[in-house]
Every structure is written in structure tokens, then in C-alpha cells.
Amino acid sequence: MADPNPARRARVIVLGLALAATAGAAGAAGRAPAGPATVERVLNPVRDTYLARGESSRNGSATAVRAGFWHLVEHRAYVEFGLDPSLHPPGGLISAELWLRPAQLPNTAVTSSVVRVARLMQTLATDPGYPPWLLAGEPSVVANLDTTTRDWKRFNVTAIVRQILADPANGFGFEVTGPSSQDNTRWDFISLEGGAPVSQDGDQPRLVLRFTDSAFPSPTPTVTDTPTPTASPTATDTPPASATPEPATPSPTPTAPPPALHLPRLLRNL
Description:
single chain; alpha+beta; Jelly Rolls; 4-stranded antiparallel sheet
């Protein structure tokens, strides 16, 4: 039943609108502000290999790169990526993760194993000999990996990537090692060759980079000069050619009739 008092109905409507506005403001205040738009780049390695103490050769074509210890023999894996400051702006970098997928479960008695990732400071494109290890250094990160699953092992390498982009002449990728011989765990990670064909969704190592969207300015559209249209001549209807009139045939000039002969007058003159 309608309220017979118009003024009271107006107060009720105004109160309802005020409550709705307050609830909307409270809901908006409770929501986290939207973050900046991000762009993801996934890189595949350009080269990878591993070295083992006591071996005199590099294993660049192996289907797995090895890191860690096995019966006190140390192995170190090296993965090189094509990081380029002109393509991967360091100022817009939000995060970087190195993903490695085990080719098999490690043969170990422990359920977790410590793995260290450091900055690779020399390229794998040239053979520097067997020192026995390649040059690597800080920054580095350490992660404790689950040895009971073959899921992706992910390492936060943001600090390493920032350093590589800041000094690309001394940064090429990552050295992966097992810093402790006590757990006797060697990891065999699927290599570039082992994960063929190479793709961003393949099993080979990958480097996942996240940037702010503003780090990649939109390309300026190229302005093309539009030619000024030329006025087309207006077509004029050409009258059909008139047929040349044939000369008129002259009409025959009438001949005067001969004078009439009056026979009676002639007969009188006889």
C-alpha cells in the first residue's frame, strides 16, 4: 500500500540512495587497486651444456644437462640465453624465472636437494678449454628442490637477469650447480636438444620474463602522403555527325505551250 504522505516517501527514497552510495564506496575501498598491465616474454636457450670433474669434453649435444654430485663427482650445467637490453628493457623488468624440467627423478635417498643458480659470465659459443669450470659469479640464488616429482623446477633469477641486462658483456645466462656433496644428488635436466622441437611450450629450459606494458612503447604509425586527386575531365556528349544532304534534283522548268491555232481565222484569210 502506498504511503499517503509524499514528504515521508521522499525522505525514504533519499535515505535509500545515500545508503547505496555508502555501500558502493565501501566496496570500492575494499578492492585492491588494479596493477599495471604486464607483458610476458618466454625465451628458449641459444646453447646449453654441462661439465663434470674428471671429464675432458663438453657435452653440448647431450639430451640432458647435469648438475650436482654423484658418488662425489661434481657436475655443473650451463644454459645461455639471448638476453638483449634493446629487446628486454631492464627498466621495465618486473620478474624473471628460470624453468628447468627433470628428465628423470634423481637417484637419491633425500626428499629435497639444494641447487644454486649463478650468473654465467662467458659465452658457450667459443670453447674456452676445460678450466675445469666455466666462469660464473654473483649474483646467485639458492633453491630447495623436491626430489620426488618431475614437475618444473623454478628459480627466481630476477636479480641475475637485471645484472646481465646492465652488463651484457659479462652476462650470458646461468650456471646450475649442487653446492653440497653431502646429499649425493645429481639432477638431469632436459636440455635444448632433449626438448626438441624447440618451442615456448616445450620441455627444454625456458626463461620467463615479465615486463610492464609501458616498457614497450606502441609503434608510431607511418604517415603516408595521400596524393591529391586529379579532377577528371567532364565528358561532353558529342552530337552524332550529321549526314551530308544530297543535292536536290532540280525540278524541270515548265515549257510554255505553243500558241493556239484558230482554224476559222486562217480559213478566212484563204
